[in-house]
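Could someone model zinc ion with this protein?
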Amino acid sequence: MARAAHWNPLIEKFQAKLSKWKSSTLSFGGRLTLCKAVLGSLGSFYFSLFKAPSKVIKTLEKIRMRFFWGGDMEKRKITWIAWDKISTSKDRGGLGIGSLKAQNIAMLGKWWWRFKANPNITWAVVIKSIYGDDGGFSRPSVTRRKSGCWGVIANLPKYLEKDNISFASHFKLVSNVNAPGSIKWNWDLEPSSIYSVSSLRNYIDMAILPCSVEKWQWNPLIPGKLNILAWRIIHGRLPTMVNLSKIGVTTSTLCKICGEAPETENHLFTQCRITKDLWQRLSGWWWLLDPNVRTIGDLLNCKNLLQGHRRLSNIHEGIMLVFLWVVWSYRNLKAHASGVKSISVLAYEVQSFSLFWFNARNRKAAALRWNDWCCDPVLECYSRV
Ligand SMILES: [Zn+2]
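Reply:
Sure, complex below.
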């Protein structure tokens, strides 16, 4: 399995799962979910026994990246944000996909734990008889020369050393409180002291993936695609006319909604004539919205006004996010299909989508009612908590 060609079945399966038709029918949120889950049972089997050659990891990451942006291996779409920035965890400014390299190593690392935690089970005894009582961990170069996948597993610390990541030192021998006089192994990257794949995976990803200044705190009340929209706006990587002209896709920079000013994120969501009217209309309905927002930063920070009321502040921010979504969808409708909608229709969309999404994700409080939601949504939220 050290040869890239032997990984072709996995690559084919990967490609089939992340196919073109799925990328064109799913939203960004759906594609994100599929990117995270694509490894499947075959991939998990391969990854838990063999270290994938870096060429294979690169190919698999490329398939995921192209799928995420809506393309495939034949047709490439614009990649607006670097893949390693997307892969990094949400609290470090990414979308939490995680790298396949870290997943592979962390799954192999589990064998170290199994061997140390249960040294007397049959397979461990076999390993000991071949590689010595310590499983060959202290002499990885000798272990490597013998055939089989154990040599690769014993060499994990050496592979991680290249990225300045320590591995073996996180296994600690401590006295066993349940059996006085005896000792046991602890894994110090997990509060429970028991090895978990996710703990090593996160640890490796922290070391090899970048950390962004721009971070988006996921709002649980609305779908992933809206959170991803806000995340892209924060990174300044939405395909607005100004951004498209910067990469040479278009020469015109005029706003697709009003046609009067350059289409930046700020203009589109806070200064455009149509969106301003829509925002005014909405702030008359959900009166907690500030009618005088000037920048996209004001919009995205709106949650801070309502600290201390977690659910209400999530709803408040949720309405703002639905507003962004409705404006962006309308902009795309005008750009690609020349469709026109009135302010009333757009406001109705914000009201109805937000009610539908909040109720669908509402696990604890009673469902919001449409008539009361339209009349006095703030009161309705208080009465239904
Ligand atoms: Zn405009």
